[in-house]
Amino acid sequence: MEKVLPKGWVETELLNLLQTLETGIRPKGGVQGILEGVPSIGGEHLTSDGGFNFKNIKYVPKEFAEKLLRGRILHNDVLIVKDGATTGKTSFVGINFPFDTAFVNEHVFICRPYKEINPKVVYYFMRSKDGQERIMVNFAGAAQGGINTKFASNTLIPLPPLPEQERMVAKLDKLFAQHEKIKKALDRIPQLLKAFRQQVLTQAVENKKGTTKLKEFLIDIKYGTSKKSEYGISGTPILRIPNIENGGINDKDLKYSVLDEKEYNTLRLRENDILIIRSNGSVSLVGQSAIISSKHENYSYAGYLIRIRLNENYDAGYLNYIFKSNFIRSQMIDTSRSTSGVNNINSKEIQELDIPDLEVSEQQEIVRRVESLFAKADTIEARYQKLKEKVDNLPQVILHKAFRGELVPQLPTDGDAKDLLQEILALKKESKGKRGKA
User: Fold this and answer.
1) For 181-212, how does the pLDDT look when each residue is reduced to its tens digit (9 = 90+)?
2) Closest CA to 324 of 247, 389, 404
3) Residues 49 and 134 in one domain
4) Is the separation of the CB atoms in 6 and 405 below 8 Å?
5) What's the burial of 396, exposed, middle or buried (CB within 10 Å: 0-12/13-18/19+)?
6) What is the per-residue pLDDT across 69-83, written as a single tens digit (0 to 9) for each?
7) What is the CATH number of the domain that holds 87?
8) What is the pTM of this model?
9) Edge-to-edge strand list for the sheet holding 108-113
10) Which residues of the chain are modeled with pLDDT < 50?
């Protein structure tokens, strides 16, 4: 079925709307080590929300830039990544673009619409799902695939009459600004939940009776096996660092090892044992813990983990929770040592950790309260994730409505985009004629 355009609209090749379609170049040998000059914008500087990230900006020498005949960025340009993993990513050069003079490199197209149309119509359509799909139809190549200038001839774009363009772009600008505010507000929620959970844990370790050393409550503390573990062999399941997750065990990625009877009996896990990561390149992982449930009894564990087993005077659930508190984490981080980029904490240092000196009944009551509060936080987080998914999808919903002609009304006084297109094509023909005579 032929696609029906809104009244007064026309569909045309993207190339017909562009007075300029070009890429830039960089000096022979690249731009590494050039610390000043004229900014050189590559695909890595375009962001998925249509903006820019200039944290790792690169430069071309000023003398080189002055000789360039193409690739200079102007306000109202639409930039499109031409190759690599982010091919098709689109950004708009608005009034807040921070550089008076900047050039694209050879990996980015400048699409410069004629002044007779609103350039953001091109930008917004290229950002839409439909626009991205039309761009990617032109993708070719494997290792470093991409698109060439022919994509602009092969990509059709719906064009409203100019008055409707102005209304549509104004509406889109307003909606996307509101969307950005909503996103920023939502982005605060994970940090607020993290702070809430940490405050709960802080209260869990507050104790007027003071502290005592962890070693006073230990039956046993042992390093894991040094034997290699493998996938798909018959043997004992071996828990490793990737299996320690959120205070428990994630057993989706299990390896196995063949342990002799003596080692197996020594390292066999029991319910309420606690595993601690003792060594890792990331200091944030050192000291992370997990409590063993009945499901994982009789498993064993790898050498980068330490198992602790408590006596009846300390609750394993309580200890596992407070291992996440700043009170315990700060002790572990201060104690851990870096050797060739690997951070370590040993069994002796773990035994010397200061922990709250509470009766078991008090510990168990705190665990009950912590679990109740954490469950409420988990409920909020689940709602946040659902809302975030809807908010993340909202831009494409808005753009879909816009380019179906459903975002703003079509007015009888708007005229017909066919007339506008004919005017642009006449300008393009005239421009080609002048270049031919030159």
Assistant:
1) 999 999 999 999 999 999 999 999 987 679 99
2) 247
3) yes
4) yes
5) middle
6) 999 999 999 999 999
7) 3.90.220.20
8) 0.81
9) 18-22, 108-113, 78-81, 90-92
10) 1, 438
